[in-house]
Design a protein that fits this description.
Elements (H helix, E strand, L loop, with lengths): L20 H13 L3 E4 L2 E4 L1 H8 L1 H11 L4 H12 L1 H6 L1
Antiparallel strand pairs: 1-2
Length: 91
């Protein structure tokens, strides 16, 4: 979506649609609690852990599906939604 470690971003800079702002804020709060983002004065800044999590997402999905093969549809649904998160939030 355009979040780069060391660079702050806001809902405005990511062009999040007005109706999706509450969802965006809930997501950012959750990522902040997990240590993937830090709240800065006018937005958020990704931590190095954010980059590591983003880089390992495909392997995490493969591991999940391998361990829980009955949940393949849910895993694929999550992967598909995450792949399209930017356009979804932009409305």
């Amino acid at each position: 979506m355009g979040a780069i470690v060391g660079t702050k971003f806001t809902a405005d800079s990511l062009r999040v649609a007005a109706p999706m702002r509450p969802v965006f804020e809930r997501l950012m709060t959750s990522l902040e609690k997990r240590g993937l983002l830090t709240k800065v004065a006018a937005g958020y800044s990704p931590t190095p852990a954010f980059a590591a999590a983003a880089d390992s997402a495909q392997e995490a999905l493969r591991t999940f599906v391998a361990q829980h093969s009955g949940h393949l549809p849910e895993g694929l649904l999550c992967a598909g939604n995450c792949a399209e998160l930017g356009p979804i939030l932009r409305g």
